[in-house]
Amino acid sequence: THPHFDHVGAFIEIMDSYKAEITVKNVYYSPFTAAFCRWANTSNQVDTSEVLVYDEFERVKTQNTDVVFRAMRRDDRASVDGINILCMNSFDENVRDVNSNSLVLRLETSGVVILVTGDITDVSVDRMRNYYGADNALWHADIVQAPHHGYVAGISNTRLYEMTNPKYVLVDCSTYEYTYNSVNVVTHE
Questions:
Q1: CA distance 62 to 64
Q2: Angle at 30 between CA 98 and CA 88, to 5 degrees
Q3: Going by fewer Cβ within 10 Å, which terminus of the chain is more open, N or C?
Q4: CB 132 within 8 A of CB 94
Q5: What is the rounded average pLDDT for all residues in the chain?
């Protein structure tokens, strides 16, 4: 979804070390640029190196000519094995935040809608709401991946969950992250 190690690292390891065991045919990604990643590193966006992760992803793209790499931009569509995919958010060089540029994919199969959100922020949600409208049927989702591993920082989730009204929310994080960093945390100030 974006060039942070916790979102790209396993893919890079699979392509480097497990390609004989795992077949990858297509990769859909948010088309970050080297210039943006360099800017993000110099502006202290996060503690990790977007340039390093971006460069590693580009290396994998170059080395794996048998895999189709497709940059997804807002409103792009794809269909894979009966799963219809709509890209609702993608890289925009004018949005000066790495997480806010996370890829957001709306997956629909057999009448079930799943919204994969990466590490989007309230900025991302507002941009998508302004573009698609708050009442658009595209917002309906049965399952929503909690943005940014369920962390409270950067997103209130309220608007997203009100628009999507999901039956289930997936929190993709470790037990440690859930216990100490995510929506489970109660802070005392």
A1: 6
A2: 95
A3: C
A4: no
A5: 84
Closest CA to 147 of 171, 119, 116: 119
Q: What is the largest CA-CA distance in the chain?
A: 53
pLDDT in tens, 1-56: 887 777 888 899 999 999 999 999 999 999 988 888 888 777 665 555 666 788 88
Q: Token pair for residue 53? A: 């992760």
In one letter, which amino acid is 83? I
Neighbouring C-beta atoms of residue 155, cutoff 10 Å: 23
The pTM score is 0.84
Report d(CA 186, CA 179) in Å as an integer. Answer: 10
CB-based contact 145:115 (threshold 8 Å): yes
In the block, which residue shows the tokens 């005392």? 188
